[in-house]
Amino acid sequence: MRILNATLVTVLIFAFTIFGGRLGAQENSTKPLPDLSSLSWMAGTWTGVQGNVEMEEHWLPAKGNMMLGLHRDVVGPKTVMFEYLRIEATADAITYWASPKGRPATPFRLKESGGNRVVFENPEHDFPQRIIYWLDKDGTLHAKIEGTQNGKVVAEEWAWRKK
User: Are 127 and 149 in contact (CB under 8 A)?
Assistant: First the structure.
């Protein structure tokens, strides 16, 4: 019985250490989550062509404090680029997570938002440091990445129409 009790105490101490004292308790944050509904203009299927690249970006509407997105570039019969995307609202911030070619996701925190324009930023990231989305009056969705790369200011922009 002593061995069983000692084992149980050891497991409980280990669990308490790993879970930071939250074992058996749910986090009840009284801080309200930021609202993603202001980004509803991004939701939908967007397509465009730049040169010989067919582009598409899909954004699911906000649900469960998250928007999920997917970007794909196709040249001829071949996918040349894809990226998993998400915008997540937590008690701390709204964060855009980019996972190009399925790599580990990089966070970009919401810097500014208003009307049909949003800016996310991560100054510590190699490139890009900023991601900007905006919707023109004519219904064109734009995305732009910008930052410093090899000591030079670099930017790249995409434009899509809703399908």
Answer: yes
Spell out, as residue ranges, where the chain has pLDDT lower than 70: 1-30
The contacts found for 26-32 with CB under 8 angstroms, 24 or more apart, are: 29/91, 31/91, 32/91
- 33: tokens are 């989550």
Beta strands in 18-104 (DSSP E): 44-50, 53-59, 66-75, 78-89, 94-100
CA dihedral 158, 159, 162, 163 (to 10 degrees): -70
pLDDT at 34: 87
pLDDT tens readout for residues 7-43: 443 433 333 333 343 333 334 456 778 889 999 999 9
Residues 62/40, Cβ–Cβ less than 8 Å: yes
Query: Do 107 and 118 meet the contact criterion of CB atoms below 8 Å apart?
Result: no
What is the maximal distance between C-alpha atoms in the chain? 75
Q: Which two tokens stand for residue 1?
A: 């019985």
Whether 89 contacts 66, CB under 8 Å: yes
User: Has this prediction a pTM greater than 0.70?
Assistant: yes
**Residues present in the chain in total:** 163
Structure tokens at 108: 């970009």
